[in-house]
Design brief:
This protein has 443 residues and is of the alpha+beta class. It has helices at residues 58-61, 98-104, 124-134, 143-150, 193-206, 219-222, 228-232, 284-293, 297-300, 322-327, 333-339, 350-369, 421-441, and strands at residues 2-6, 27-28, 31-35, 41-44, 51-52, 81-82, 156-158, 176-178, 184-188, 237-244, 250-257, 266-273, 302-311, 316-320, 373-375, 379-385, 400-405, 410-412. It folds into two domains: 11-151, no CATH class; 266-441, Inositol polyphosphate kinase (D-amino Acid Aminotransferase, Chain A, domain 1). The strands form six sheets. Strands 1-14-13-12-16-17 form a six-stranded mixed sheet. The longest helix is centred in the last third of the chain and has 21 residues, at 421-441. The relative contact order is 0.13. This is Kinase.
Length: 443
């Protein structure tokens, strides 16, 4: 199986040892934690001032990986700058072996220790599969990505089907999956108030208490006896846990249902909803960055942050990243959405579109009635089974799942007599595009 990369450029508290997320610029085991624009922490050394990032050459791709577990590698920033360290080293994915995968996962790290439990270790076949999954959308990896992959906690792997948000292969702390628990994912808690807000949202909605949650942030949810409808359109929440990587750096993680685990060949679309994706408390600089990032957001009401489609006739995946999403305009939005339903032989999954529209009608009905929450920068996660479709007359139902995710910018309304027009506009407009798609597909 191959993948094509397309870019425009348990209990509420786990038994794992808990501790607070280290604060910005606080030393941990002699290292510093750098905090990126989205509020995620990345472990790294105390580094010199920013220097211009140099592109690696083809020759660099074949160089041997550092032997020190990546402790001196540079931390790459989103704007193409590199914060010092060794020269960037890239690893070609197609030559990856199980031996290299073991090395990639951190055997050279000073504090890496083999697990005593066989279930927490990957055999050769699993390691090669993981290597393929990590590299499905990259011809090569940056130093910061390799550094984080070496530090992936023992017994965990990067979430294979993640399309949106921060990911290890991008050099960010991404979602994790625990070996032997395919139905769960572990999402890093964002730094500061955004992380506390998202944890507090889930705590309030599910009526639980964790060491980061603040009940005063969502009092209406805490006091509500009718949260079941909202729970049904979100991933199931299983509490909070603290996970230490192989260097000993600790980070709190939300334990959430992985809605892709029921699918054999999940096709996934992540849409950032709303005409604006910043909340009422956003700094003017943040607002300016978001406006420049994607000017069409206000008119479309949604943005593609990631898309992965399985092609059954060629047995491979096609992936579109957030940079592709930012290149989509009003004129090309229908074409971009159509790609998500292409089978590969010229036909389209109209059965999936009909199922999605039925489910979106339920979302719209809930959003029209709810007047408690403002959902800024919340995403709509759409998944369908890309494998063989049921035969005509087959009672098997088309497999589709849709959930709301990402609540770091969700607020309770000061007034409870208004709809969340911002997010509602996005869902309605996306539904209209699907209706248009069905009309054109039937012609």
């Amino acid at each position: 199986m191959s993948t094509t990369f397309t870019s425009g450029e348990e209990s509420v508290e786990s038994s794992i040892d808990h501790s607070q997320i280290p604060m910005d610029q606080e030393k941990v085991d002699g290292c510093l934690l750098s905090v990126d624009d989205e509020g995620y922490e990345t472990p790294g050394k105390k580094l010199p001032p920013l220097v211009k990032h140099n592109k690696a050459t083809a020759k660099d791709c074949n160089k041997k990986l550092p032997e020190n577990g990546g402790s001196d590698v540079a931390m790459a920033e989103d704007d193409g700058y590199e914060t010092g360290g060794k020269k960037q080293v890239l690893l070609k994915p197609k030559t990856g072996t199980a031996k290299e995968a073991r090395k990639l996962r951190g055997s050279g790290s000073p504090r890496a220790e083999p697990s005593d439990r066989k279930s927490d270790r990957l055999d050769d076949k699993q390691l090669e599969k993981l290597l393929d999954e990590i590299f499905v959308e990259r011809d090569s990896l940056t130093d910061s990505a390799l550094h984080l992959l070496r530090l992936v906690p023992d017994g965990y792997v990067p979430l294979p089907h993640q399309v949106g948000g921060h990911r290890h292969i991008d050099g960010k702390l991404g979602f994790l999956r625990r070996i032997g628990q395919p139905h769960l994912l572990y999402k890093p808690v964002q730094f500061g108030s955004k992380g506390v807000r998202e944890v507090s949202f889930y705590d309030a909605l599910y009526g639980v208490s964790t060491h980061l949650g603040d009940p005063s942030i969502f009092p209406s949810l805490c006091n509500s006896s009718n949260n079941s409808l909202l729970q049904s359109i979100l991933p199931m929440y299983h509490g909070l846990t603290t996970i230490a990587d192989r260097a000993g750096h600790k980070c709190d993680h939300l334990i959430l249902e992985d809605i892709t685990h029921r699918f054999t060949h999940p096709c996934i679309l992540d849409l950032k909803m709303g005409q604006r994706v910043w909340d009422d408390h956003a700094h003017p600089d943040k607002i300016e960055r978001e406006l420049k990032k994607y000017p069409a957001q206000e008119r479309l009401g949604f943005r593609i942050t990631g898309m992965r489609i399985y092609k059954p006739f060629t047995d491979d995946y096609v992936y579109y990243d957030r940079y592709y999403g930012r290149s989509v305009t009003e004129d090309t939005a229908l074409s971009a959405i159509t790609k998500f339903f292409e089978v590969g032989d010229g036909s389209h999954r109209t059965d999936v579109v009909n199922c999605i529209m039925d489910k979106l009608t339920e979302f719209i009905n809930w959003m029209e009635k709810q007047n408690t929450l403002s959902l800024f920068a919340t995403s709509l996660l759409i998944v369908y089974e890309g494998g063989p479709t049921p035969a005509a007359g087959d009672k098997q139902q088309t497999q589709v799942d849709i959930r709301l995710v990402d609540f770091a910018h969700t607020y309770e309304k000061e007034r409870d007599d208004t709809q969340d027009a911002n997010a509602l506009f996005g869902v309605r407009n996306f539904t209209q595009y699907l209706e248009h798609f069905l009309k054109t597909a039937g012609q």
